[in-house]
Write a structure and sequence with these properties.
The strands form eight sheets. The chain has a five-stranded antiparallel sheet with strand order 1-19-18-17-16, with no helix packed on it. It is globular and about 60 Å long. Helices cover about 0% and strands about 45% of the residues. The protein starts with 5 loop residues before the first strand and ends with a strand. The protein is mainly β and about 350 residues long. It has no helices and 33 strands.
Length: about 350
């Protein structure tokens, strides 16, 4: 593929993958539970309750408690609707994790995203394919297929204010876009480094960010027409080009929180100025596995490493290590948008 080429793909109808509890025997549990799955706190992480139930039949309990959960996303209009990505597909709840159902069962997906407007529409990246469902997993269509066998799709996001506009990144560094709900695609840019994350500013969708594995963060202020590397603005922070995670601080118009090999950095002006948020771990010594910020308060920050979950109430001036409810690592964090005392945690065994 080359820049600005337009591609169209025929859609492939895929039969239902996982619908209904108990159809995967290796997640059935009798007389006990695992310590994976999803955990839930109503007091900002001080105490936790496991929320992994699917169904029960006599003495047989089916749950996701033995699965590795690597990603959690809620619907922006109803925070009780949550999707969890696991090593055995994607699961869904519409009652704040009290009960889960299978949506996609084909192993570990690379990434997924929700349509911000219409419930039940998901886009899922699986190896070289992007699949779409409009009925919450009952049927699927292939909307994009990467033609190069050595290139995998790595990140997907739907524009929060234009749900027909979809961005996909790959391990070759290509950023591709569809403006017609996935019917056709074009390459916007190549960043010469695998794309780890794509962000669209929810308050101004002309502003895009791309996080790359080795070249740090890139910014576009014109919906992808031109791009600017931001590494010159954090060059004094050694290791900051090694990207871990980037999230918006929703209390500001253009505030960002960035986790890298260096540590935590914050920008309050869209990325042209950065300052360090000191953590309890020495700079350059940890891998940030998950990052979250209270959508109502920029002072409340959570981050997870391989063996710890840490919280600050004062913007990083002081930190508290929270007691983990699981022997596994924290790979996903989600703060409820409408009730920020509620926090969800995805537990997983670390492989890389």
């Amino acid at each position: 593929m080359t820049k600005n080429n337009l591609f169209k793909f025929g859609t492939l109808l895929i039969v239902p993958l996982l619908l209904g509890a108990g159809c995967s025997n290796n997640i059935s549990i009798t007389g006990g539970v695992g310590d994976g799955g999803v955990w839930y706190s109503t007091d900002k992480g001080e105490s936790w309750e496991q929320k992994s139930f699917i169904s029960s039949d006599n003495d047989k309990v089916v749950s996701i408690s033995k699965l590795n959960v690597t990603e959690l996303k809620s619907h922006r209009k109803d925070s009780k609707i949550i999707y969890a990505s696991t090593n055995q597909g994607i699961y869904f709840t519409e009652n704040a994790a009290d009960k889960w159902s299978g949506v996609f069962s084909t192993g570990q997906v690379t990434d997924f995203t929700l349509d911000p407007e219409v419930r039940g529409i998901l886009y899922v990246l699986f190896e070289r394919s992007m699949l779409k469902t409009t009925d919450n997993g009952r049927t699927w269509e292939q909307k994009y297929l990467e033609s190069r066998e050595d290139v995998l799709l790595s990140d997907v996001i739907v524009d929060p204010t234009d749900n027909g506009r979809i961005y996909v990144g790959n391990t070759s560094g290509d950023l591709i876009v569809s403006q017609d709900f996935g019917k056709s695609w074009r390459v916007m840019n190549n960043f010469s480094s695998p794309i780890r994350e794509i962000l669209v500013n929810p308050k101004d969708n002309t502003i895009l960010y791309v996080g790359t594995a080795r070249k740090g963060i890139f910014l576009s202020s014109d919906q992808g027409a031109t791009w600017q590397g931001l590494s010159e603005f954090y060059k004094d922070f050694k290791g900051a080009n090694e990207f871990h995670q980037l999230i918006f601080d929703l209390t500001g118009q253009s505030s960002l929180l960035y986790a890298s090999r260096f540590g935590l950095l914050k920008s309050d002006n869209g990325g042209t100025e950065w300052y360090e948020i000191p953590t309890i771990s020495p700079s350059g010594s940890i891998i940030y596995r998950a990052l979250a910020i209270n959508p109502a308060s920029s002072k409340e920050i959570y981050y997870a490493t391989n063996d710890a979950l840490v919280r600050s109430f004062d913007g990083g001036q002081s930190w508290i290590s929270l007691r983990l409810p699981t022997s596994r690592s924290v790979r996903a964090l989600l703060v409820d948008f409408f009730n920020t005392t509620k926090v969800y945690l995805g537990a997983a065994k670390i492989k890389n």
